[in-house]
Amino acid sequence: MKKYIFIAFLVCTSFGAFAQKFAYVDTEYILKHLPEYKSALTQLDVASKQWQEQVDRNFGELDKMYKSYQADQVLLTDDMRKRRENEIIEKEKQAKEFQRQKFGPDGDLFQSRTKLIKPIQDKVSDAIKQIAKAKYLDFIFDKSSEATMMIYASSSYDVSNDVITKLGYKPGTVTN
């Protein structure tokens, strides 16, 4: 009896396994083959180096100002000391603000990266979707990232609306 149950289990899982078709891609490998991606990375690298050099210069000037202040501090009057301290504080604020503008989460580097790389990534994504549909694939995973990521899934496997219904809500009515 156990033998028949085991065989039935194997048959069921075999049919279930063949019902869905999986594939994977390596987006890093794909992107390395695209000249426009290499060009975009070069542009980003050049801009990043220029901005980093300016950041380094700004903080170098700040360091010189601070060392000069420390050397002169004993000779300065209270007013002169406060003025120099304020200049150093203002220079530090400017240096940090420049660094944030260039390298911050919404900085120029991030925006340039989005502007240059996103269209290329969209192009790759569209090609992946076209291949998935042409080969009747249900899921495509990206093996290039540390955590395996699904980059394509057939909408026929999306059970989000079923979950919403099961929770007692109506799909398509988003609450704020």
Radius of gyration, Cα only, in angstroms?
29 Å
The number of distinct structural domains comes to: 1
Oligomer: single chain
* Helix content, binned percent: 55-70%
SS element count, helices = 6
- Shape descriptor reads elongated
Stretches where pLDDT is under 50 for at least 5 consecutive residues are 1-15
Please state how the strands of the largest beta sheet are arranged side by side.
1-2-3
Q: Find the count of extended strands (DSSP E, 2+ residues).
A: 3
Distance between the termini: 56 Å
Let me know the average pLDDT: 84
Structural class given helices, strands, pairing? mainly alpha
Order of helices and strands: HEHHHHEEH
Strand content: 5-15%
Q: Largest beta sheet, briefly?
A: 3 strands, mixed
Family: Belongs to the Skp family.
Signal peptide: 1-19
GO biological process, one term: protein stabilization
Keywords: Signal
